[in-house]
Each structure stands twice: as structure tokens, then as C-alpha cells.
Specification:
single chain; 93 residues; mainly alpha; 4 helices; 0% strand; Transposase_8; transposase activity; coiled coil
Amino acid sequence: MGKFKKHTPEQIAERLEKASKLSEAGKTNAEICRELQISEATLSRWRREYGEMSRAAARELTALRKENDRLKRLLAGAELEKAAYKDLAKAKF
């Protein structure tokens, strides 16, 4: 069984550009997948998710995802603090 690879959005955009060029050259999906060394399911998932995204847009997507993760962690911390303050306010000393 092969080892799974995690591709960055930039790599995916690059491979999708290459896949579209190969498709225009008349190659079938199976031939394209063999050349890109990915499965047909992966190719269709990438096309559905990334479409005709450029490399710059893929880089921006990566940055936005990182920022979104950071903000979610900050919000989770703030919600924990808020819940702790509510519990302290309810407690009688």
C-alpha cells in the first residue's frame, strides 16, 4: 500500500494547470492521472474543489485558511474564559 501525500494548494493548482494542458492535447483522464501520479478520484475532487484557480489564488487560500484556524483558536479561548467568568459569578463566597 502506498504512502499518502499531502499536496499544498499551490501544487494542486500547478497540477491542475498541467492536467488541463494534457486534456487539451487530447489525452484521456486515465492518461492524465498516470502522468500526474494521482488517482482519477483525486483529480475529479481537485477539479471540483479548486477549479481553475491560479497559483497566486491558491497561495492566498492557504494564507486565509491559516488565519481562519488562528482566529478559531482565539475565539475558543475567549469562549472558555467567558464561561469561567460566568461560573465564578454564580459561585457564592
